[in-house]
Design brief:
Number of strands: 7
Order of helices and strands: EHEHEHEHEHEHHE
Bound molecules: NADPH dihydro-nicotinamide-adenine-dinucleotide phosphate
Mean pLDDT: 98
Length: 254
């Protein structure tokens, strides 16, 4: 009986940045649990979409740059046109950028904030209206341990600030829309092995520090996030809202 609560059969789930990495793993988890998927990103250059199709999920692809101010509303409209509802929104698309404060120019700052914060805000804003009409909805935002602690050795002030904003957007929306039966949670991942954490040669010496700082002693594989995401997107977490679930191998215990 309890496993029934993890099912999202025929729920309509949008996963931004769902074509690779953490987003793809979440899309697979939701697809396996029965959801119909709309995945978005600028490209599908890593074949993630094909892997979702091969798994026989009901999946469609919305190809667009989510930093375009019109795009979040277009993604929601597309989903409503195609499926008639938007039940689950996973705001996963994001970018990281390291750099010393003095050299971190406005373009880099804009890049981080535009996608990690502004686009996520707009996605939530566009999804809330139909979710209110439906009388229910679930939003899962992908934050980071970088929104909770200052990682080392890489300098990344803007990224850290952007992820702290994601956590606070999560809590604010959870509080504001609980009475509309809309739950809003976040996951704060630690270090996962993805394109984002694939370091250039000159920074490869960061890996041992990351491993050493992590009590479980290693980076995570993307498969290790799907179950946590499914918990927060499914009725299994029906009494959980405003939570930032840390999935970090213990990093933030130290
Ligand atoms: P990846 O770089 O592997 O994937 C990012 C995804 O976002 C891709 O699908 C990418 O597709 C999409 N994306 C990026 N920019 C845009 C854009 N402008 N418009 C539309 N889509 C975009 O990253 P991860 O899987 O590692 O990260 C996913 C999330 O998890 C991010 O929010 C990240 O901050 C967070 N996170 C990751 C951690 C890690 O260790 N990997 C740790 C903590 C948090 P495309 O480029 O084709 O547009």
């Amino acid at each position: 009986m309890i496993l029934e609560r993890f099912k999202v059969t025929d729920k309509i789930a949008v996963v931004t940045g769902g074509t690779r990495g953490i987003g793809l793993s979440i899309a697979h988890a939701l697809g396996e649990a029965g959801a119909k998927l709309v995945v978005t990103s600028r490209t599908d250059k890593f074949g993630g979409l094909e892997s979702l199709q091969k798994a026989n999920y009901n999946v469609s692809f919305f190809e667009a740059d989510i930093t375009d101010k019109q795009v979040p509303q277009k993604i929601v409209d597309y989903t409503l046109d195609k499926h008639g509802s938007i039940d689950i929104l996973v705001n996963n698309a994001g970018v990281a950028q390291h750099g010393e404060m003095e050299e971190f120019n406005d373009d880099l700052l804009d890049k981080i904030m535009n996608i990690n914060v502004d686009a996520l805000f707009r996605m939530c804003r566009s999804a809330i209206t139909p979710m209110k009409k439906q009388g229910e909805g679930v939003i899962l935002n992908i934050g980071s341990i970088s929104g909770l602690v200052s990682n080392i050795p890489q300098p990344q002030v803007a990224y850290n600030a952007s992820k702290a904003a994601v956590h606070m957007i999560t809590k604010s929306l959870a509080s504001d829309f609980a009475d509309q039966n809309i739950r809003v949670n976040a996951i704060a991942p630690g270090y996962f092995r993805t394109e984002m954490t694939s370091l250039p040669k000159e920074n490869e010496h960061w890996y041992p520090t990351w491993d050493k700082m992590t009590p479980l002693g290693r980076m995570a594989e993307t498969e290790e996030i799907g179950a946590a995401a499914l918990f927060l997107c499914s009725p299994a977490s029906s009494y959980v809202t405003g939570e930032v679930l840390v999935v970090d191998g213990g990093y933030t215990t130290r």
